[in-house]
Amino acid sequence: MSEFQVSKSNYVESRIVDNELSNQMLAEGEVLVKVDKFALTANNITYAVVADKIGYWQFFPAHTASSNNSDDVSAWGVLPVWGFADVVKSTNPEVPVGERLFGYFPPATHLIMHPTKVSPTTWIDGSAHRAALPVGYNIYRKVESERGYNKAFEDDRMLLYPLHITSFALYDYFKSNDWFGATQLVMISASSKTSTGLAYGVKDDANAPSQVALTSTRNLQMVASLGVYDKTLSYDQIQQIDATKPTLIVDMSGNGQVLNDLHKHLGDNMKFCSNVGVTHWKEMKTGPDFIKQRSEFFFAPSQLQKRIKEWGMEGFEEQSGKYLKHSFTKSREWLKITDINGLDGMSNIYADVCDGKIAPEVGLTIRMP
Questions:
Q1: Statement to judge: residues 215 and 351 lie in one domain
Q2: Residue 312 falls within a domain, yes or no?
């Protein structure tokens, strides 16, 4: 088995480790899956940046290299990714060999899992080390049992689902809070796929605020061409935002200086700031004008679990499915899927993902041999 690991102290540093996991004897009730493919986006880097706060390192504990008994594996972590895998060994009578799954996996060739609460379409990984983690990340979907499953759309799903389900959660949260009284929404890092997923929902809602996109100069043309934002500005054009309008900020960047300048510019009309992503993770320190009292870190699984409890799973799937169908369709008008060959290929491009050098319209899919 091979596994892609990143340094917990320097997320750009990575390595590939080989071990004997795929040859390990399975305990009763366990399965071994072979990872087929997964997406790599800036969202995965966010997992690393907030890993200690949220617990992302705990999903897939790093394995020691089989060739190095003195390896200090505690300094290394495994980034969770979204993708597809197939069951290749099973000691669980409810999970047959050959079953295909969509969900949360490590960037690795294999993973040992412990299926529990098996239903006709899903099961939960009940591995002990994942028991206290958000259940939304522990659900695996048996895709071939899903109504309307089409393998041709798998790439769209693994690239966009984990991002646009956050977009849906944000949209639902803002709408249920009457947009915090805002008539204007400012999207920071507007080129991100989570941003555009939210923007499509806002644009489709006649009662939602108008939208201002903030993005880098190099992405201005691309963002403007989407036709979803009412105004598109670069980070050095913050002063052109109308500060007389009550404003909701959605921050996908984590850029402390941009947040500080925007909060200062808006003043009392900065009604609420939702801190979601950290595409600018190297520039997170905020300044003295950042309004902490009206800012809040957004954790999508909490909002999603709230709605599942209120609506039931069937109602949730209906509501979110309608939203995702629209956002997926719009995104496919510009999304360019780019295949990367295995963990070696991921290693070659990983630093560029960390540094934000991947064009926003590119969707990276890692295909395992």
A1: no
A2: no
Degrees (nearest 5) of the Cα angle 53, 59, 62? Answer: 100
Please report the sign of the dihedral spanned by the C-alpha atoms of residue 305, residue 5, residue 76, residue 68. Answer: positive
The Cα 336–Cα 267 span in angstroms is: 39
| Total count of domains within the chain | 2
- Enclosing domain of residue 177: 163-301
Residue 127 and residue 172 in one domain: no
pLDDT band with cut points at 50, 70 and 90 for residue 288: confident
Q: Return the pLDDT at 103.
A: 96
pLDDT in tens, 191-245: 999 999 999 999 999 999 999 999 999 999 999 999 999 999 999 999 999 999 9
